[in-house]
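Most newcomers find our protein records easier to grasp once they have seen one. There is nothing in a record beyond a sequence line and a structure line. Getting from the letters to the tokens is the skill we practise here. An example says more than a description, so a record of this kind follows:
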Amino acid sequence: MRALISVSDKTGVVEFAKDLESLGYEIVSTGGTFKLLKAEGIKAIEIDEVTKFPECFEGRVKTLNPYVHGGILYRRDKESHINQAKELGVEGIDLVCVNLYPFKETISRTDDFDEIIENIDIGGPAMVRSAAKNFNSVLIVTDVTDFDTVIDALKNDKNTVEFRRDLMIKAYEHTAAYDSMIANYMNQRFNGGFGDKQFIVGTKAFDTRYGENPHQKGALYEFDYFFSNNFKTLKGEASFNNMNDINGAVKIAASFGEAPAVSIIKHANPCGFAIGDNLLDAYTKALKCDPVSAFGGVVAVNGTLDVALAEKINEIFVEVIIAANVDEEALKVFEKKKRIKIFTQESKYLVLNNDEHDFKHVDGGFVYQNSDKVEDDEVKNAVCKTTRIANEQEMSDLEIAVKVAALTKSNCIVYVKDAAMVAIGMGMTSRVDAAKSALRKAEDMGLDVTGCSMASEAFFPFRDSIDTAAQAGIKSIIEPGGSMRDDEVIDAANEHGIALYFTGTRHFLH
């Protein structure tokens, strides 16, 4: 029996090779892997002893050889293949352990195109694909975390065709992801990121409880192991809808750095947000915005969930809590609540992956774009269009309102006072309806919007929204500007003594 081992990530490879050797495998290896194995006392033979041809062109060609691929690919169940292998002097290779040149690590640390090109693996993917194609006879190992599983299968009569088939699928996923990464990088470098093909590759983090509805299957796929590293389940099981709501809640709460911020989300839209003197204060203020919608909602805590905050949240039913960290005593507060789900990032503050691109499925394909975000200086650099200028607190509230509006379904109007969201209207077909809807909800909740700062994620097409705001006592408004009737909107703001700011940036979210 022969095993070919050629890896860039050498984690655990020495122990793996020793285990294979003890099982009677002859080890064939290449380059740095061969040197490592020999240094560790493993009786490996170098690849050119198999190929009968030296590595050449600075290592660009070493395994692209019929003695290698013939040894991997010939069928052990066909007499003609077995006979031809004997005639040609091709010796079987029964296990291939390969992981590929570190292309991702290379593009992360350098922009040197020559070095990047040299870190595109050719022989590795070819061997992986050959071994995967012949999985009926050959084990293909591409993941260092599978070493122990493979040894166990070989030792304990578990090396079944089903086992090898699972490794085969993983191998093709490995090469597909690798080629996709290269293609995406080249398109990013030379075509602005929008080439003829766009590849979106995620790794399964876990199955969700179900999809949007119980009859649908669902799973969470992650980029760069973000959730594996930053998401821990403490109680319950996440559903597809939970993950969507958690995404919205964390994006809002994490938008304010280290500030003690709490956001409350219901059906992917915010129904409460505040920055407080502490997290308990922030949650208390956030809940006032819409405690009815908060029932069964998702709460994101930009810091540690402690006992005091847990007890306050526990006064109503919320379905999900996602916190940067959770005290053990705080978790005990919810022991008797069977339906609540609690997750943590095990960090000081909530963190985001800050994906560079965003996409949305449409029937027959998907639309793809650069990710949207409110820039750090967007509100600071906004242009005042009126005679009245917002005071320091109003400017702070305008920033909160803009960030919440940018993460809320259009059309959207957000009202903020003293670092707390007071009212919000979202998902409306008319901007003035969004403004009025928010004010009606605030009135129903007994909330006073007088003195609020207001944000719209897109321009006001008419002055009617400004007139509505004035009637409610709004003192400052921020919007992108860009309407044909901007002058009318500015005139309306001046008539009512409202400070009006234009950012120049629209933040539609559909």
